[in-house]
Amino acid sequence: MVFVISRYREASKARSTQRSRSWRAASRTPSRQRANCWVQWVRPVRVGPAGTGQQTKLANQLIVANTIAAVAEALLFAERGGADPAKVIEALAGGFADSPILRKHGQRMIDETFAPGGAAKYQLKDTQTALARARSLGLALPVAHIVDALFASMVDHGDSDLDHSALIREIRRENNLPVSRKDT
User: Which DSSP symbol is given to 2?
Assistant: First the structure.
């Protein structure tokens, strides 16, 4: 099975428009040339036999969910200790903790802009699917189980349509803090 990794998954609108134009142009070219167009936007990787592409997608979702939870906890920890969360992200840039999730979702947490890019209800669906698959493989995933419970609680509190970075609201609830920094 080939798992396709998009290089421009979070491309800007301008690039999206450019890609659209490229695809229209590609549709008028022979199929071999069209196949080569894919190379610009994706990196196919053979991860194993049939079904392992789905397994890889679920592994990706576990990493995303667990990392979002770690970023939410770390930023709340820094904030409650007196640090400016935005400066913490800046200080961590380039180090081992740096990641697109820290930068992008961390900034969303700071700004409290939770328009869904990835809605919490879908993140919950994916973590639950991954945990069910793990059980079928005889695996216990304790960190993923805790993160799944946090997303379930977030959805139960009515935040299902918010971006999954709004998990920081649930971490605040767990600590009996106002869900918004603006309320402190």
Answer: E
pLDDT digits (tens, 9 = 90+) for 67-107: 999 999 999 999 999 999 999 999 999 999 999 999 999 99
102 DSSP 8-state letter:
I
Question: What residue type is assigned to position 169 of the chain?
Answer: R
Task: Answer yes or no: are the C-beta atoms of 127 and 144 closer than 8 Å.
Answer: yes
The model's pTM is: 0.79
- CB count in 10 Å sphere of residue 78: 18
Inter-residue contact 73 to 171 (CB < 8 Å): yes
Name the E strands within 21-177.
42-46
Q: How far apart are CA 112 and CA 168, in angstroms?
A: 9
H or E segment and range at residue 147: helix 142-156
Query: H-helix or E-strand containing 27?
Result: none
Catalytic residue among 13, 57, 87, 104: 57
> What φ, ψ does residue 6 adopt, rounded to 5°?
-80, 125
Helices 120-136, 52-80: inter-axial angle, 10-degree rounding: 120
Measured distance CA(101)–CA(62) in Å, rounded: 13
182 is catalytic: no
Which residue, among 61, 70, 58, 18, has the nearest Cα to 40 in the 3D structure?
18
